[in-house]
Amino acid sequence: MGSKKVLNNYGSFDVVFKSGKGSVLTDINGKKYIDFLAGIAVNSLGHNFKPLIKAVSSQAKKQIHVCNYFLSDIGVKYADELLNATGFEGVFFGNSGAESNEAAIKLARKFGQLSGGAKRKTIVTLEHSFHGRTMATLTATGQDVFHPETFAPYVEGFKTIKPNDYGSLKDAFDDTTAALMMECVQGEGGVFPLDKEWAKAAADAARKAGAIVICDEVQTGMGRTGTLLASEQLGINPEVVTLAKAIAGGIPMGACLYRGKGNVFAAGDHQSTFGGNPLACRAASVVLHELLKNGFLSSVSEKGEYIQNTVKNWNLPCIEDVRGKGLMIGIQVSKNPVEVEKLCLEKGVLFSTAGKNVLRLVPPLNIGYKEIDKGLAIIKEVLEK
Ligand SMILES: *Cc1c(COP(=O)(O)O)cnc(C)c1O
């Protein structure tokens, strides 16, 4: 199968999926696959998760969409739940990671204007970062491969610095800086966790220059790294956090959370037609509820450590590094990662590559050890060849 009708920029594999249950996917031929991809860190509760299905079905019967001229009961309820759980003061709901980051960029520019006048508008991002595919978020993305001339001109007012490098902090920030924007673990760039001490130093330096700190937690957020937000582990108290991917367990949704100096949005500053619709909010409420259950987040850390230790213990020469946080794991290999990905897919395990040479594992957060072992055994077999 395959189709020329749907814009396909993702390099197509000859597999067509039909259904899923838990951390196992089934294709149209009935073949089963262990899911270490979770729709790119989206299906955090796996497939066909009963409480989510039930809530979404019952919400669909009540109300799917109202628009932001009005509030919805579930929208208000979920906003409260999310703000309570994360310690933020306000939230903008959108539909994707890029849209959440666009909101954060607009927010940062407004903050800059209010606090430092017209000159304070630069947003500093990190090399290897990924922030989305819209014009501003592409520009924010610190990887040259995302900036071909085809799409020029890009957006003004962005600058990148090297992560985990103290030298890069020297003249990174001044009175023209509105915000420092960074991922706590760089996902698409190759699963590079930020060094805690460096992240703190970077946040301190940015704030000393009068800027705010934005954490792009579109991939790391909502339990992926073993805490609700990954920024909790860095101890940097960002003024703004952006979320999407896993927030509503597969229903498209994004959020831009703000507090303190980042609390500058006024009514009318930013909007989105679908943003925060009742169906998405109901799904997101179920996801949040699951994540906050006793022991859930610690089990994410435990499973992540188990995977990292298992892979390290293989002692395979083609494995150059194993890193990550929680269930966001990168295996850096000396083999062609796309070949490994393809062979693994044939043998029944699904994951993606990131950066230049990294296998990225982001399974559902509620995956069982049995599936973990099965999937890892296939990866080992392929890497041993
Ligand atoms: C996936 C991702 C985005 C973009 O999200 P979309 O929903 O595809 O727009 C932005 N930032 C990070 C860190 C991501 O992983």
UniProtKB/TrEMBL annotation:
<dbReference type="GO" id="GO:0003992">
    <property type="term" value="F:N2-acetyl-L-ornithine:2-oxoglutarate 5-aminotransferase activity"/>
</dbReference>
<comment type="similarity">
    <text>Belongs to the class-III pyridoxal-phosphate-dependent aminotransferase family.</text>
</comment>
<dbReference type="InterPro" id="IPR015422">
    <property type="entry name" value="PyrdxlP-dep_Trfase_small"/>
</dbReference>
<dbReference type="InterPro" id="IPR004636">
    <property type="entry name" value="AcOrn/SuccOrn_fam"/>
</dbReference>
<dbReference type="InterPro" id="IPR005814">
    <property type="entry name" value="Aminotrans_3"/>
</dbReference>
<dbReference type="GO" id="GO:0030170">
    <property type="term" value="F:pyridoxal phosphate binding"/>
</dbReference>
<dbReference type="GO" id="GO:0042802">
    <property type="term" value="F:identical protein binding"/>
</dbReference>
<keyword id="KW-0028">Amino-acid biosynthesis</keyword>
<dbReference type="InterPro" id="IPR015421">
    <property type="entry name" value="PyrdxlP-dep_Trfase_major"/>
</dbReference>
<protein>
    <submittedName>
        <fullName>Acetylornithine/succinyldiaminopimelateaminotran sferase</fullName>
        <ecNumber>2.6.1.11</ecNumber>
    </submittedName>
</protein>
<dbReference type="InterPro" id="IPR050103">
    <property type="entry name" value="Class-III_PLP-dep_AT"/>
</dbReference>
<keyword id="KW-0808">Transferase</keyword>
<keyword id="KW-0663">Pyridoxal phosphate</keyword>
<keyword id="KW-0032">Aminotransferase</keyword>
<dbReference type="Pfam" id="PF00202">
    <property type="entry name" value="Aminotran_3"/>
</dbReference>
<dbReference type="InterPro" id="IPR015424">
    <property type="entry name" value="PyrdxlP-dep_Trfase"/>
</dbReference>
<dbReference type="GO" id="GO:0006526">
    <property type="term" value="P:L-arginine biosynthetic process"/>
</dbReference>
